Amino acid sequence: MSDPLVEVEIDTRDLARFENLFRQIGNQAPNAIRRAINWTGDKARTQVVRVLAKQTGAKYGAVRRAMLTKRATYGRLAYRIVAFGGFMSLKDFSPRQRRDGVSAAPWGKRRIFVHAFIAPTMGGHIFVREVHGGKRVGRLPVRQLFGPAIPREMMQGDTREMFLRTVDAQLIPRVEHEVVALMRGFAPR
């Protein structure tokens, strides 16, 4: 299965009102737009990471490390956020061994995984013994338990909506800011 790609198209009709300003700054217009895209993209990325951390129950730093940012360049006026990685081990969700199993909090909700156990000799991962025909067969086989996958969760819930809301609110005012800064000589040319 290939990684799904979500593309977000931004309506640039609002940029038409800057047409005269773009003419005044000439060949520096793409530079102003690039800086505005990167500034807005960085703001949106922060919001996406916050929402994903809450949505998955994962730590903010873990979500951040699971993302790669491709910022806009002079040749490509696009900002991309790429999430990678598989399902996170249940050990990343504050597991606690209990008499009846392991308590952990994937997706932000603590629950008990009955008959599960923490295996310190196997990196602290959480395992459960396989059951066949309603009976445990012995010590083996065991299977590891997992929580959410950041790339999959990024496509669900409030994440996309938060990205769009941030871009919608921030991009046009930031383009205006960058154009005015260029015209006044405050921004590098």
Break the fold down into its secondary structure elements and pairings:
Elements: H1 19-25, H2 29-56, H3 60-65, E1 67-70, E2 80-83, E3 87-89, E4 96-98, E5 101-104, E6 111-114, E7 116-119, E8 125-129, E9 131-132, E10 135-136, E11 142-144, E12 146-149, H4 150-154, H5 159-183
Antiparallel strand pairs: 1-2, 3-12, 4-5, 5-6, 7-8, 8-11, 9-10
Helix pairs in contact: 1-5, 2-5
Structural class by helix and strand composition: alpha+beta
Strand line-up in the sheet with most strands: 4-5-6
The residue ranges in which pLDDT falls below 50 over 5 or more consecutive positions are none
The biggest sheet amounts to:
3 strands, antiparallel
Number of domains: 2
Which value, in Å, is the CA radius of gyration?
23 Å
DSSP summary: helix tally: 5
Listing every helix as H and every strand as E from the N terminus to the C terminus, the arrangement reads HHHEEEEEEEEEEEEHH
